[in-house]
Specification:
about 130 residues, mainly beta, seven-stranded mixed sheet, globular, four-stranded antiparallel sheet
Length: about 130
């Protein structure tokens, strides 16, 4: 059974950090592009960051402008897990964060192009 499970969300003060994990089971992430999306109440789901598959030789990544320099996406193929390190968190980062996977050689940032999704993890940034 193909499954993605996110963890690591929670409540953090502005300026704090969290690391989200996305663990895959039922398939190997090596040949999949992986993305983190988020959705705040009343807003559309937006791409936060994505990382290419192992076939993507330069290990390309993409970040939405609002998180550049603060968030880092990485993958540990041995653990079949992708991470999102989030630093300098702001209240506007508050949302449910989802990871998604799609078998492809390219980076893709549109949610409709991802076949597999996790259940989401809540991130709340508040004092």
């Amino acid at each position: 059974q193909v499954q993605l499970v996110e963890s690591g969300g929670g409540l953090v003060q502005p300026g704090g950090s969290l690391r989200l994990s996305c663990a895959a089971s039922g398939f190997t992430l090596d040949y999949y592009a992986i993305a983190w999306f988020r959705q705040a109440p009343g807003k559309e789901r937006e791409e936060v960051a994505c990382i290419g598959s192992v076939n993507n030789s330069d290990n390309s990544t993409h970040y939405t402008d609002s998180v550049k320099g603060r968030f880092t996406i990485s993958r540990d193929n041995a653990k079949n897990t992708v991470y999102l390190q989030m630093n300098s968190l702001k209240p506007e980062d508050t949302a449910v964060y989802y990871c998604a996977a799609q078998r492809t050689f390219i980076l893709i940032i549109r949610p409709g192009e991802y076949a597999y999704w996790g259940q989401g993890t809540q991130v709340t940034v508040s004092s």
